[in-house]
Design a protein that fits this description.
This protein has 139 residues and is mainly alpha-helical. The chain contains 5 helices and no strands.
């Protein structure tokens, strides 16, 4: 039986790598990566694809094609199992994938943390960048 830590890591890594192909339950494209994160996701996806090609894992390659062509969640789940097994067998490969995944998460986190929230009403939560009238409550 596989270690749950690897299962979570493999699932998250694949979610990052194939996010542009997977559709959410509402039918909308899942959260898109932009700029540098998108480039790194492509690198992560290519690393996974080339790993399975070099291993001759036809089932994994078939799952990758289904994800890319149809956005198949079922194929993503199968690929998660295959990747989980490979990461367990080769810790260096796992570390390389996790490193790229952490870089993607870091880039996305920086993008999110740089947002500014403008609220001109009385519920001014972001006090670091107050714009408008900073008066809270009263008249």
């Amino acid at each position: 039986m596989t270690d749950p830590i690897f299962t979570v890591a493999a699932a998250e890594i694949l979610k990052l790598a194939f996010s542009e192909f997977i559709k959410t339950s509402a039918g909308e494209t899942s959260k898109k990566l932009t700029g540098e994160a998108l480039t790194k996701a492509g690198k992560l996806r290519q690393k996974i694809l080339s790993w399975f090609r070099n291993k001759g894992n036809v089932k994994a390659e078939k799952a990758i094609k289904a994800i890319q062509n149809q956005g198949s969640i079922e194929a993503l789940n199968k690929l998660t199992t295959y990747l989980d097994d490979e990461m367990e067998e080769d810790p260096i490969f796992a570390q390389n994938l996790q490193k790229i995944a952490r870089q993607i998460i870091s880039v996305q986190s920086q993008k999110i943390s740089n947002r500014q929230y403008n609220n001109y009403g009385r519920d001014q939560f972001n006090i670091e960048h107050i714009q408008g009238n900073p008066r809270i409550g009263g008249s």
